[in-house]
Write a structure and sequence with these properties.
By secondary structure, the protein is an alpha+beta fold. It has helices at 42-48, 66-80, 101-123, 142-151, 157-167, 171-180, 185-193, 195-198, 269-272; strands at residues 5-9, 15-21, 24-30, 50-53, 84-94, 133-138, 200-209, 257-268, 275-276, 280-281, 285-291, 298-311, 316-330, 339-354, 360-377, 384-404, 416-418, 432-456.
Length: 462
């Protein structure tokens, strides 16, 4: 069992004592529940705090993170068995030094916010008015890097500490010199060995035991009135009935929910309002369905395009059946799926196209490639969205040209024939092949959620 006694100094130099909760060094229990102001030094925070580790260039919480399992499966049930009040929360988020500096500023701030949101969601019931939260963000935590190397008695500790001290807190200077140290050998080892531990948001929780309200003393009234002379007869009246009004219990604040996409229907206006040179308007129907998970970045999309134009009098045809499957990765996940995305798609197509008596083709094709796009909201709830997209890849088709009338005797007998001049017994379909590599699709999409889920809203949810 590990129990340490810690002290927190107030501005008036008064000392307040706390002890760590057994098996949970980042949870401190107040000896005096009436204390109200606390300070935590950097050295104490580094020694006692615990937190969530993030992946490289990510601010998303991982459900399998060891701290989350410890917190949800062990700490919360433990606290539920104790009469505790959450007094204060200290949170600090950080980013490891690799990567652009401005991006590290964003990562540190968002990681701090993610942990605060998680704490609020899990422990909101332990504080009547919401715990005061004191948070900081460290962009590139060289100070903690040096402390970890010193604690581990790392062979390169002296070199790294000398660089940090000589730069006097200048993070750009420290990064530049460390990356150049010994031709980059030390930096590469730091990235591999120490930097993962710097991608954390850590916390210290301060609790106090709830005090049971003391009953107010009952003071018996002293009779100061003089005694009355005896009365021979006193008429006693029945007491008036007293209506007792029960205390009104304030209604609990209703639980608020936010919408989360589940399945959305989408149409591509470029396909719906298609104009084809030498043919004209080829209106069609495009329908897509996209599935969104509750969290993460990846979605699955399936789309089908159908057109069926037959202008007999002009010898023009435009008949198209196209199926496309796509996996998308949105850069902004967390159940929102808004902004830029990248995708991988595969498609299969069957078509019959004719522009005149002598220009017609029939065939099948398929291919795949990369798609890029951007999605934005069109209404406040986010259920209606606008999307722009483009696709690039490989498309391979096998086809046969056809003409109006008999190609041998040029007789227009009202029928269409394959444009083939060999022996009819040797004819096989799809004698021609065409391969294309480049832009394959473009889209202006309107998306609407046809099925959505409700998720309990978390305080300060971004």
């Amino acid at each position: 069992m590990m129990v340490h006694f810690l002290c927190f100094a107030q501005e008036q130099s008064m000392v307040r004592a706390y002890h760590q909760l057994e098996d949970f060094p980042f949870v401190l229990i107040a000896d005096d529940p009436n204390d109200s102001l606390y300070e935590v030094s950097d050295s104490l925070f580094d020694a006692a705090s615990r937190g969530i580790r993030f992946r490289v260039n990510s601010t998303e919480l991982q459900p399998d993170d060891p701290f989350i399992r410890l917190y949800a499966e062990m700490l919360v049930p433990r606290l539920q068995s104790m009469s505790m009040e959450l007094k204060q929360v200290f949170v600090r988020g950080a980013a490891s030094p690799e990567g652009p500096y401005l991006n590290n500023v964003r990562l540190a701030r968002e990681r701090t916010r993610r942990l605060i949101d998680y704490i609020n969601a899990q422990l909101g019931s332990y504080s009547d008015a919401g715990p005061p939260i004191r948070s900081t963000s460290v962009t590139e935590d060289y100070g903690r890097l040096v402390k970890m190397m010193g604690a581990a008695r790392d062979a390169d500790y002296g070199k790294v500490n000398s660089v940090w001290q000589s730069c006097q807190g200048d993070e750009a200077c420290c990064k530049r010199r460390l990356m150049a140290l010994e031709g980059g050998r030390v930096w590469r080892r730091l990235v591999r060995q120490y930097f993962p531990a710097l991608r954390e948001a850590r916390v210290i929780l301060l609790f106090a035991r709830r005090q049971e309200p003391k009953p107010e003393p009952v003071i018996a009234p002293v009779d100061t009135m003089p005694a009355l002379p005896p009365v021979s007869h006193v008429e006693v009246k029945e007491p008036e009935p007293v209506l007792v009004v029960a205390d009104t219990v304030p209604a609990e604040e209703p639980v608020r929910y936010v919408r989360r996409h589940l399945i959305a229907a989408r149409t591509n206006l470029v396909h719906d309002l298609l104009y084809v040179p030498q043919f004209g308007w080829a209106y069609g129907a495009n329908i897509q369905l996209e599935y969104y998970p509750l969290r993460g970045h990846y979605t699955m999309n399936a789309g089908f395009t159908f057109t069926n134009h037959r202008h007999w009098q002009d010898y023009k045809f435009f008949q198209l059946r196209d199926l496309q499957l796509e996996v998308r990765r949105y850069f902004r996940g967390g159940g929102e799926f808004i902004g830029p995305y990248l995708g991988l798609y595969a498609q299969g197509t069957k078509y019959g196209i004719g522009f005149s008596k002598t220009k017609g083709w029939e065939g099948e094709g398929g291919g795949g490639g990369l798609s890029v796009g951007y999605t934005c909201r069109l209404n406040r709830k986010g259920s209606l969205r606008l999307e722009l997209s483009a696709s690039f890849g490989l498309f391979i088709t096998r086809y046969d040209p056809y003409v109006y009338g008999n190609p041998f005797n040029r007789e227009e007998d009202g029928l269409y024939y394959y444009e083939y001049y060999g022996n009819a017994d040797n004819f096989q379909e799809r004698n021609h092949r065409w391969t294309w590599f480049g832009p394959t699709n473009a889209g202006i999409h309107i998306t609407y959620d046809i099925i959505y889920r409700k998720k309990k809203q978390v305080k300060n949810e971004e």
